[in-house]
# Entry
Amino acid sequence: MAAALFACHDRAMTASTIKIILFFLIAGLPLLVNPFAVNSVELIKRESAYVLVCLLAVCALAQAPGKNRVRLQALPIALPLFAFALSACIATAFSINPAFSLRGDFARGESFFTIITYVLLCPVFAFFIQTFDQARGLIRALCISTALIALYGIIEFLCLQAFGISPLQHLRPPELHQPYISATMGNANFLGRFLVLVLPLFAAGAAAAAGARQALLWAAGGVLACTTLVLTYSRASMAGCGVGLAVFAALARAAGPAVRRRLGLLLGAGCVLIVAIGVLSTALRGSGPRAFFTTISSRAVATLDVRQSDGLGTRLFTWRHSIPVILERPWFGHGPDTGFDALVQVNFEKAARFNILEILDRIHNNYLDIALTQGLVGLGAYVALLIIFMRGMYAAIRASGTHPEARMLLCGLFSGFAGCLVNDIFTFSTVSVSMTFWSLIGIGCALQRLTTHEINGHGS
# Structure
């Protein structure tokens, strides 16, 4: 009898530990920042994820005899996920810089250990989420965390424009200051990528909310996130956000006029807040209201310049000159985190062409970056994984027996990934965002499984 009580107590403790770890992985990691470190956002998140995933592995072993475990072979993305991990192993073994590939450089840290952590985050969330309420709670926690990050980003924007510093960046050396807001992501483009991924979840929450008060809270968080995204001035993120929200509107159009009205009000409130904060920031600098609109329009015009602009022009140049480097080692690439070594010649050519001094360690296209570091095998596995994952979500959205709230959350996830796939044409994977990216894949797989069980009459 005593042994049974102790066993029950141990299982309860393990379940509580798992719950805390999952919530911290999805909501706590994005908030972490160490302003006293040279790299204020990557290292602390990377090391925390290593520890937490190891703890979850121990919990999985402790609960091995338990029931209702998800078998890895039942995970739809298991095969491409394994192929992606295997490509990272082989690429690391034959890397042109084994030390960087294994441990990562100090700035990015996308090493072999990090990639394996990404891969493990998918089954971790798919294994341990057992009910729809758990998945919904994790998404809600992520959105609360995102709202805090967005609020900090807006404060940072106003301080940056008024005083030329960021509340955290004043602790960094001058050469590491960022010209645009970064919040807890370390870079304006990374912050934009994070918001592109999460923002449709706010729209989903507002659309599925039971009452007006809940809908208002979801809408307020979404307005903050949308405003912060625009204030990053990240053109890739704006394009990705536009695609994501357009996809969400298309998927949710059958939800009824009340939902469409809520989404319209959310979009309108976001536009008003963006303009208000933009005008306020220019007023703090002593400029007129036109200055904000001039900044937006000038960056939009520069986007169309494919020859000279420090944006699309340099991106196209980098992509074109990086393809021969990829083809030098096409199958398994040069090794994780070896962009600086592999792209030395491209660095020289870019500096000569655009008369800029910039250390290029990424191609600024996530798909080409994966091809560079993990080869075409790694890229093929990554693309196959996303196709299978998104096709499964779309099937669950279209299924007639899917619960309306689950359908709306799946719409939000699908739309966030659709926007992120567009955004990734112009940016690349980084620890501060990718932990959330891969965790959401696991949550999406869990939602698909729970939805399928419910439709088949098994309950969740």
